[in-house]
Write a structure and sequence with these properties.
Helix content: over 70%
Radius of gyration: 13 Å
Low-confidence stretches: none
Order of helices and strands: HHH
Strand content: under 5%
Number of strands: 0
Shape: elongated
Mean pLDDT: 90
Number of helices: 3
């Protein structure tokens, strides 16, 4: 975990893309679940944040 955080701070593409992908997947899961209204409410924001983050991060150096 410490190595992942150290790589995240250096603004490299790999760890940031992984984090953006997790956010997108989390947003989709939140959108499709039928139990919690708060999760459904924030699902679009989480998915949008992950998508914009992925677009920005794709320009980081490897």
């Amino acid at each position: 975990m410490r190595a992942f955080l150290a790589r995240l701070i250096r603004l490299r593409r790999g760890p940031w893309e992984a984090l953006a992908t997790v956010l997108i997947a989390l947003g989709v899961v939140m959108l499709m679940q039928p139990y919690f209204l708060w999760a459904y409410t924030y699902s679009f924001i989480i998915t949008l944040t992950g998508t914009v983050m992925f677009i920005i991060v794709s320009h980081f150096p490897e």
